[in-house]
Amino acid sequence: MSTQQKVSRVVVCPHCSTKNRVPAVAAGSPRCGNCHRPLPWVVDTSSPDFAAVVDESRLPVLVDVWAPWCGPCRMVSPALEQLAIELAGRLKLVKVNADEAPEVSRRFDIQAIPTLLLMRGGEVVAKQVGAAPAHVLRTWLTQYLPTGGAEPPATSDATTGDRR
Predict the structure, then answer these.
(1) What is the structure's pLDDT at 10?
(2) Which residues have a Cβ under 8 Å from the Cβ of 24 and sit 6 or more positions away?
(3) pLDDT for 53-105, tens place per residue?
(4) Does the annotation mark 16 as catalytic?
(5) Taking the CA atoms of the chain, what radius of gyration do you get in angstroms?
(6) Which residue in 13, 16, 32, 70 is the catalytic one?
(7) Of the listed 16, 32, 35, 73, which one is catalytic?
(8) Among 3, 29, 98, 108, which residue has the fewest nearby CB atoms (within 10 Å)?
(9) In terms of C-beta density within 10 A (0-12 exposed, 13-18 middle, 19 or more buried), how is residue 42 classed?
(10) Residue 32 a catalytic site member
(11) Element (H, E) at 140
């Protein structure tokens, strides 16, 4: 198991404010340990862990290829995190720093940042290049996601209720 797979992020449930430890890789999608509602799943990853974090995910994955020096990347990031909250249980947001993961940029022929890739089963379903407002990104993204807010059948508790 790689270092990234062992790393988890503490996420505050948007419904009940309980702190939950959310892993980068899990069989299902994360749910709050207290109220059991879906949690936003936001992961930072690099080239060595990309396959485990993205390609093997059962949920659709929105990959954000960005760089810290990129102004438009920093502008679009809050909108993406808000979409991860709104689409919790239906989407996994994975952030890839292009400077630290050149293999990912080469694999997907990234020529400008930010570039957003919507992936399912390791395949690119849709691509968005450049920053856009939240409502535009929401419309673009939701047209490719399953409708009705139904979660995929392979959903399980992937968190622990951590009330630190």
Answers:
(1) 93
(2) 4, 5, 7, 8, 9, 43, 45, 49, 52, 53
(3) 999 999 999 999 999 999 999 999 999 999 999 999 999 999 999 999 999 99
(4) no
(5) 15
(6) 70
(7) 73
(8) 3
(9) buried
(10) no
(11) helix 134-142
